[in-house]
Amino acid sequence: MKIREMPEQNRPRERFASFGPSSLSDAELMAIILRTGSKTENVIDMSNRLIKEHGLNKIFDCSLEELQEVNGIGPSKAMQILAMAELGKRHSLSKNKLKRITSAKDVFNLFHERLRNEKQEHFYIITLSTKNHVLGDHLISKGVLDAAILEPREVFRPAVKVAASRIIIIHNHPSGDPAPSDEDIEVTKKLIQAGEMMNIKVLDHVIVGNGKMWSWADDWKG
Question: Does the structure show a pLDDT above 70 at 97?
Answer without folding.
Answer: no
